[in-house]
Design a protein that fits this description.
By secondary structure, the chain is mainly β. The protein has a domain of about 280 residues: Rossmann fold, CATH 3.40.50.1820. It contains 10 helices and 39 strands. The strands form 9 sheets. The protein has a 9-stranded mixed beta sheet, sandwiched between helices. Strands 2-3-4-5 form a 4-stranded antiparallel beta sheet, with no helix packed on it. It has a 4-stranded antiparallel beta sheet with strand order 6-7-8-9, with no helix packed on it. A hairpin with a 4-residue loop joins strand 2 and strand 3. The relative contact order is 0.10.
C-alpha cells in the first residue's frame, strides 16, 4: 500500500528525469507507404544520435523493423527552414534529402546511397516518384543567388541522367505535390507573400506529357480566401482535398470540374502547414477515407464514407493523431494518449483493430505519475472564449501540506499558428510529477478552432495571446487550483515572444523562461527567412508602415517594466530567431540588475535536437525556478555557472 509523503510543491522526487526523457525516447515523423512492395516506412528523430533522422522500414511479411539510413546520413530538409517531406519510397528504392549537404540521394535498399543533385546551395522537399517517366518531382528552394531573393519552384530530376529542370515557377511557395495513379496529371499547392499557407493557398492541376513537362495548367480551388491542405487522388478522375472555406478545415472532392463537400462539420480535418509532407487523412478506396479529426484541440480517428457521407469515430484512447497514411484495408499513423507514448499504429479498418508497430519509448512508467489533462475554456475577452489543457500536480508518492497550492507554469506554444494537444508529453510530466501545475494554452490564433479563431490574432499578436495567458492564470487562481504568488510563464519561438511580452506588460508572473524567443520585432523582419518574411504583416501590420506598432510590442523596448528574473535558452545556429534576440534582453536585464540566466548551445538551431542539450535545458530551468520560488530540489542538479546566472 502506498503511503505518500508530505512535501512542498516543486520538491517532489520524480522518476521522470531528464536522463530518462532523452536516453530512451525518439520522435516519429513522416510515414511513407511503398505500395509496390506493401511495406511501411517512417522517419525517426533520435536525440541520443545528436538529433539524427533515420528512415525505418517495417516489413509487412515478417514484421521486421530495421534502419534503412546508413550511419553517416541524416534525413532532413532545410526547405522553409522547418523542413519535412524529406523522403519517398517506390519499389524498394528510397529517395531522400541529406541534412549536411541538402542533396537528394537515391538508395536501393541494402546498398549505399548515391547523390542525384549537385552540391550547390539548393534545398529540396516533397519528393514524388513518377515511374512512368523514371523521374523524381519535388519542391526546390534555390539559395544560389545570394544577392537576390530566394526562389522556389517545382522541378523534375531525370533518373536516367540526373538532369534537373524546372517544371513551374512564378509563385513564392509550392508544396503538396501529388501525381495521379496513371501518372498523367499533377496537382500542387502554391501561395504568395504576404499569405501563409493557412491564410490562402491555390490548388492547381496540370497534364504531364511524355517528356514530363506540364500543360493545361488550371487553378481548381483557392481563388477566394481559403486555405487548401493535402490534395490526394482517389482515382484518375477524382481528387480530394481539405479546405477551410466554411471556417473549418473539411474534406472536399473535385471531379468533372466540380467541387463538392464530402462532409461539413465544425471540426478540423487539417493542419497549419509548418512543414512539408503533413497528412491528416488517407484515401483507402471509394467508400473509405480514414481521417484524423480535431475537436477543441483533441484528435480522434474515424472512417468517412464519401458516398453516404457517414462518419464513424473509431473508439480509442488516442487524443493526438498525426501523419495518416493508407494501403489496402489498413491505415498507418502516429498516435498517443495522455498516458501512452507516441506509437506507429496500424488500423485494420474492417475489424477496427489497432496494432502498435513501434513505440517511441520502451520506458515503463507507472501511470500514477502521469497528470491527466483537463480541457478547460474561460472567458478571455468579451464574447470570446479561450481554450487550454490544465495539468494538476500528480505523483503517487507525495502530497502537499493541507492548504498549500501548487506553483503554476503557463505554457505558450510556438507558431503562433500552432496548437497545444493533450498527448503524452514527458516534458510536461517532468514538471507535474515534481509538484507543478501546468496550463498549456491554445490562445487566440491557435489551430484547431476554425479559421475565424486563427484570424482573431491578426493585428493582435503580442496583445490577444498575452491576454489569454494572463486570463488562464487568473481563471485557475479564481478556481483555487494554484498559488497566486507562484506563477511562471514559459514558451519557445513565438511562444517565447508571448512569454517576454507578458513579462514586460504585467506583474502577474514571478518569473519566465524563453526558449529562442523573439524580443525585437523589427530585427526579426530584417533577419528572418523567406517562409516567414511577411508573417508579421498580418500578425502586427505591414512593415515599415506599422513601425510604431513593432516598437510598441517589442519586449526589448520595455525592459523598464520587467521586474522579475528570466532564463533564456538559445541555439547559436538559429536562422529563424537569431541569437542576438536573446542576447539583447540578457544584456539589458543584467544592466538593470534583474536576475537572469543565459544558456546557449552550439550546433543547435531552432529547436533543440541533441540529447545532452535537451537534458541541460530541462534541469537548468528547474534549478532556476528553485532559486526564484525558494523550494528544495529533490534532484541532484549541478548549479548554473556563475557567468550564466546573475543578480539572483
Amino acid at each position: 500500500m502506498n503511503n505518500p509523503k508530505t512535501a512542498a510543491y516543486g520538491s517532489w522526487k520524480s522518476p521522470i528525469t531528464s536522463d530518462m526523457i532523452v536516453s530512451r525516447n525518439i520522435g516519429f515523423g513522416q510515414i511513407v507507404i511503398d505500395k509496390q512492395k506493401n511495406n511501411i516506412y517512417w522517419l525517426e528523430s533520435r536525440p541520443m544520435e545528436a538529433g539524427r533522422n533515420v528512415i525505418v522500414q517495417y516489413d509487412q511479411a515478417t514484421s521486421r523493423v530495421w534502419d534503412i539510413t546508413p550511419q553517416e546520413f541524416n534525413v532532413r530538409s532545410k526547405a522553409h527552414e522547418y523542413g519535412g517531406g524529406a523522403f519517398t519510397v517506390a519499389n524498394s528504392i528510397v529517395f531522400f534529402v541529406n541534412y549536411s549537404d541538402q542533396r537528394v540521394y537515391r538508395q536501393i535498399i541494402g546498398q549505399d546511397p548515391h547523390p542525384l543533385t549537385a552540391p550547390i546551395n539548393k534545398r529540396y522537399a516533397d519528393l514524388i516518384f513518377d515511374g512512368k517517366r523514371n523521374q523524381l518531382i519535388c519542391v526546390c528552394e534555390d539559395h544560389t543567388d545570394l544577392k537576390n531573393k530566394v526562389e522556389n519552384y517545382l522541378i523534375k530530376i531525370n533518373l536516367d541522367n540526373n538532369a534537373v529542370s524546372v517544371l513551374i515557377q512564378g509563385s513564392d511557395f509550392y508544396s503538396s505535390v501529388q501525381i495521379s495513379p496513371d501518372a498523367d496529371k499533377l496537382v500542387w499547392l502554391s501561395w504568395n507573400h504576404p499569405d501563409m499557407p493557412w491564410d490562402q493557398t491555390k490548388l492547381s492541376i496540370a497534364d504531364i506529357d511524355a517528356q514530363g513537362s506540364l500543360s493545361n495548367i488550371q487553378v481548381i480551388a483557392g481563388l477566394d480566401s481559403e486555405s487548401i491542405f493535402q490534395p490526394q487522388w482517389l482515382n484518375n478522375q477524382e481528387l480530394y482535398f481539405v479546405s477551410d472555406r466554411n471556417n473549418w478545415w473539411n474534406i472536399y472532392s473535385y471531379s468533372d470540374k466540380q467541387t463538392k463537400p464530402i462532409l461539413e462539420m465544425p471540426a478540423e480535418f487539417g493542419l497549419a502547414q509548418w512543414v512539408f509532407g503533413m497528412s491528416t487523412y488517407a484515401v483507402i478506396d471509394s467508400e473509405n477515407i480514414v481521417c484524423a479529426i480535431n475537436t477543441k484541440g483533441t484528435w480522434q480517428i474515424a472512417k468517412l464514407n464519401p458516398q453516404t457521407k457517414q462518419l464513424k469515430i473509431i473508439a480509442s484512447d488516442y487524443c493526438l493523431i498525426e501523419a495518416v497514411a493508407g494501403l489496402s484495408n489498413q491505415a498507418i499513423f502516429i498516435a498517443s494518449a495522455y498516458n501512452q507514448f507516441s506509437a506507429i499504429v496500424s488500423l485494420d479498418i474492417v475489424k477496427e483493430q489497432f496494432t502498435h508497430l513501434k513505440q517511441c519509448s520502451d520506458l515503463q512508467i507507472d501511470s500514477a505519475y502521469f497528470s491527466q489533462p483537463r480541457s478547460i475554456s474561460f472567458k478571455a475577452r468579451e464574447n470570446s472564449l479561450c481554450h487550454a489543457f490544465f495539468y494538476p500536480p500528480c505523483n503517487k508518492d507525495f502530497l502537499a501540506q493541507v492548504g498549500d497550492k501548487p506553483l503554476l507554469l503557463v505554457v505558450s506554444h510556438g507558431g503562433p499558428t500552432a496548437a497545444a494537444n493533450p498527448g503524452l508529453n514527458l516534458k510536461i510530466q517532468y514538471w507535474t510529477s515534481r509538484g507543478f501545475a501546468v496550463v498549456d494554452v491554445n490562445y487566440t490564433g491557435s489551430t484547431g478552432f476554425g479559421r475565424k479563431y486563427r484570424q482573431e490574432l491578426y493585428s493582435q499578436w503580442g496583445i490577444a495571446d498575452v491576454n489569454d495567458c494572463l486570463k488562464a492564470s487568473e481563471f485557475l487562481v479564481a478556481q483555487g487550483l494554484v498559488d497566486p504568488k507562484a506563477l511562471a510563464i514559459r514558451g519557445s519561438s513565438a511562444g517565447g515572444f508571448t512569454t517576454l511580452a507578458a513579462l514586460t506588460s504585467s506583474n502577474t508572473f514571478k518569473t519566465g523562461a524563453s526558449y529562442y524567443g523573439v524580443s525585437d520585432l523589427i530585427a526579426l523582419t530584417q533577419e528572418t527567412h523567406k517562409f516567414e518574411a511577411h508573417y508579421l504583416d498580418k500578425l502586427i501590420g505591414p512593415y515599415p508602415q506599422a513601425r510604431e506598432l513593432y516598437n510598441q510590442r517589442s519586449p526589448i523596448n520595455h525592459i523598464d517594466q520587467l521586474n522579475c528574473p528570466v532564463i533564456f535558452f538559445q541555439g547559436l545556429e538559429d536562422k529563424i530567431v537569431p541569437p542576438d534576440q536573446a542576447k539583447k534582453m540578457v544584456d539589458a536585464l543584467d544592466k538593470k540588475g534583474i536576475g537572469v540566466a543565459y544558456i546557449t548551445f552550439e550546433q543547435e538551431a531552432h529547436g533543440f535536437r541533441q540529447a545532452k542539450n535537451i537534458k541541460k535545458a530541462l534541469d537548468w530551468e528547474l534549478y532556476f525556478y528553485s532559486r526564484v520560488f525558494d523550494f528544495t530540489l529533490s534532484d541532484h542538479l549541478k548549479p548554473l555557472d556563475s557567468w550564466r546566472l546573475k543578480n539572483l
